[in-house]
Amino acid sequence: MSKRVVVTGMGAVTPLGNDVKTSWDGLVSGKNGIGQITKFDTADYKVKIAAEVKDFHAADYMKKPMIRKTDLFCQYALAAAAQAMEDSGIGGKIAPERLGVYVGSGIGGISTFVEECTKLNTKGPRRVSPFFIPKLIANIAVGNIAIAHNAKGPSLCIVTACSTSSNAIGEAYRAIQNGSADAIITGGAEACITGIGIAGFTNCMALCETNDPENASMPFDKRRSGFVMGEGGAVLILEEYEHAVSRGAKIYGEILGYGNTNDAYHMTAPQPEAEGITNAIKQAVSEAGIPSDAKLYINAHGTSTPLNDKTETLAFKKALGEQAHVALISSTKSMTGHMLGATGAVEAIASILALKNGIVPPTIGYKEPDPDCDLDYVPNKARHADIDYAISTSLGFGGHNACLVFGKAK
Predict the structure, then answer these.
(1) Residues 6+ apart with CB under 8 A from 48
(2) Domains in the chain, CATH or no CATH each
(3) Residue 5 — φ and ψ, nearest 5°?
(4) What's the CA gap between 125 and 127, in Å, rounded?
């Protein structure tokens, strides 16, 4: 019999705040985390806005030598992991060999890559930092989190583009289910608001080029034209139910289902008939055993791109039937922007807190309905609702699809 898996700790660094409470309060109040880019001069760029993390101080979580040896994405991951571990209270209450780390990043240390390439081209190979590779590689967040928390159990870095941290959470869930670990530190981090990051996504026609923060990230709105880049990190502590109960841990909620598929269709575009994401939702919902009359909240991937939002809406209808028409659906990317490898974990936290607190975050900036997106997207204002299950979906370049289902703590 597979083991039950619950969430006992959470940590976050987002464009809305540098901890879970501040980020959640921002989501519920409909705060817009998008603004003018401050990290570099955007004079020559079409895109001049992003959802930046504000007032983050790595020194609150690590010493100066570690700051020098880590890229910003890793610092976000370490900060979120530290918060989650403290929140869970699991430190010292689990054998190191039974504590794992599953944390991913879609891209990894892109700012480090740019900095060191500049050194190579202007000053020669001897000036490239000896920390270049350890700062760059996406799996280094896992390694540094494991060191920080003496986690010697299963260790994995998931890289599935925008599905990264949803897949990380799902695979961590599977590992605890099958008895490989008693708890896993899981989530994702990203820090791609750089010149080359913005230029690259702009030139592949993915970003919104409307530089008005109030009318840029508009998931499911007819005017939507692309996503807005976000950044940050989010981590959850997943724990085997009996282990959590035995130590008197607080339990936020339970993971009940996970779906993982691929479109096998196109490098960047979703399959038009939504086959992949539909099957991922069906897998997760079936595993969770969601009854047909359950009250649902869906935290949609909702990127504000013309194809994604239309495709997701179709998937909800195909996978859930009539339930899709009464479910409450929102895209918190309307407030956080698209945090790439971190987005699934941030949205998992939002889903769990919506379930726990009985309040659904809104989709802000929604003004013009789209006939292809005709469900209830909780426009502009949070809504109180007694929901039974929360579903979180993620879709990534490369055709990746992930779906997580959460239930209330029982």
Answers:
(1) 36, 37, 42, 211
(2) 5-246 (3.40.47.10), 257-407 (3.40.47.10)
(3) -130, 125
(4) 5
Centre a 10 Å sphere on the Cβ of residue 374 and count the other Cβ atoms it contains: 13
For the entire predicted model, the pTM comes to: 0.98
- Both structure tokens of 180: 């490989």
* Other CB atoms within 10 A of residue 268 CB: 14
- The letter for the amino acid at 95 is A
Q: Output phi, psi for 110, to 5 deg.
A: -70, -35
Rounded Cα gap, residues 257 and 243, in angstroms: 20
DSSP designation for 60: G
Question: Tens digits of per-residue pLDDT, 140-175?
Answer: 999 999 999 999 999 999 999 999 999 999 999 999
Which residues, at least 6 apart from 126, have a Cβ–Cβ distance to it below 8 Å?
none
Segment (H or E) for 184:
strand 183-190
Report the DSSP pairing between strands 99-104 and 155-156.
parallel
Q: b/e string for 291-305 if b means 16 or more Cβ within 10 A?
A: eeeeebbbbbbbbbb
Query: Any idea how long the chain is?
Result: 410
Task: Give the tokens for residue 338.
Answer: 């698209």
Active-site positions read 162, 301, 338
